[in-house]
Amino acid sequence: MSSSVITRFAPSPTGFLHIGGGRTALFNWAYAKNRGGKMLLRIEDTDRERSTPEAVDAILDGLTWLGLDWDGEAVSQYARASRHREVAEILLAKGHAYRCYCSPEELQAMREKAEAEKRPVRYDGTWRDRDPATAPAGVKPVIRFKSPQQGETVIEDHAQGRVVFQNKELDDLIILRSDGNPTYNLSVVVDDHDMGVTHIIRGVDHLTNAARQTQIYKAMGWHVPEMTHVPLIHGPDGAKLSKRHGALGVEAYRAMGYLPAAMRNYLARLGWSHGDDEIFSTEQMVDWFGLDAIGKSPSRFDFVKLENLNGHYMRGTPDAELLAAFITFLPHVAGGPEMLGRIDAGMKAKLLRAMPGLKERAKTLVDLMKSAQFLFAERPLTLDDKARQIMADGGVAALTALLPVLEATEWNVQSVEAAVKAHAEATGAKLGKLAQPLRAALTGTSTSPGIFDVLDVLGRAESLNRIADALKSG
RNA sequence: GCCCCCUUCGUCUAGUGGCCCAGGACGCGGCCCUCUCACGGCUGAAACAGGGGUUCGACUCCCCUAGGGGGCGCCA
Q1: CA-to-C1' distance for A66 and B62, Å?
Q2: What angle do CA A177, A178, A179 make, to 5 degrees?
Q3: Assembly ipTM
Q4: Are A167 and A257 contained in the same domain?
Q5: What are the C-alpha distances in Å from A379 to residues A128, A383, A469?
Q6: By CB distance 3.0 to 4.6 Å, which of A72, A106, A385, A438 could disulfide with A102?
Q7: Which nucleotides in chain B lie closer than 7 A to a protein CB?
Q8: Residue A191 domain-assigned?
Q9: Which keywords are on file for this protein (predicted)?
Q10: Is residue A403 domain-shared with residue A422, that is, in the same domain?
């Protein structure tokens, strides 16, 4: 079992789970499942200033909504700080690290000077070889990693291929802050090692870190995990996704009415592919998923395609299941709680009955909410502009003639349909001349599921009354 | 500025030297179905960033240019 795969998703709790993070989690999850391994969850909360418990909750909630689970408890990186310090001390003892007494101001000046002189911005190694005895009094030092100055560090990356960094390009990074707290690159290495992580899958923005981390692994004599750096997801316009530009938390996608299964399918196709397959179940994804089919170029997020995919999933979801999803969705959308409050057993039955016609026309749960509106409407209905136009353009006359026919008809889909069609034939009118006015009167709009289904779901009394209402006000 | 990476239809992508005058999907146009809107079916337009090589033969390999992205914190 020691050879089994262990991946991890390691978000920092400084905000919601954004779409790129969601995909990274999905890839880690899918790979672990594919290999019969485990996916661990580690919260990278060593930045005490910016980490919040609310963000941790939001991330967990986002993952759960996406349908991604993890093995064991979520690990707090901050809780492991003493172990990180211990490793920093070991590195120090082994001569792979040293104390640096430069102040933040000096470092800032160093950076600015380098920038002004158009030189690479790096730590100059001032304290690398200086005698600690010359240390200024009263200054709390940081510990820096003594990075190799010659040779190269190679990453054999499953997505990026072989990436070579010249060691001279990598400066001596701080691994322990002057307040004794570890920094990211140290913590990650220690945790991934201690947690037995075999495969690291994360965004390419970590590629340079991968080189630095590799050096730390080697200095400790530890085995370096397999690496996969996934290209980033950009906004629809190709610009980088950022908090003020299009980056949404996964809960925003929930509020937009997307189904988790559709989300997973869509995200899987961003940067990963399996031949020409576009629509596949999560089981198939797990079955097919592999690191070497991950591409190298960034992709754009395309809402139109997501919407189309979501429509597929909506139509493919059994009515009762979709109704359940709809009900759990309502609390998350504007106007949803109000609608939810009006869903009793009777309304549930109506929704279920109307679902085949409703879901056929909806791309999102928000669409479903809108198109189901007519079931909730109370008499007398307010007609929208198009509906009113239909009534004005002969609708009133058509319904006036049709009403007695309906009143005399047995109420079920078949007989109502037969009656309306017979009436159309008898009067020489096209079915549309009757269906549209009916739709206007019954739903207050010009679009809806098949009109005979509407008649059926609404029931005889309600249907007849709505028609009478429309005739009165028309 | 320095380092690393990327570049196939508008978008997501297939393609690993000949199967490709480049395939699929979304979107877009047309037609059909039709009580509206959708769905569905058929059909059409639409791409190998540019330039050099290598090779009998390049979307596929190499180099250069251009464009794009990522990184360069006592953030993660």
Answers
A1: 44
A2: 90
A3: 0.95
A4: no
A5: 82, 11, 8
A6: A106
A7: 1-8, 10-15, 23-27, 34-40, 68-76
A8: no
A9: Ligase
A10: yes
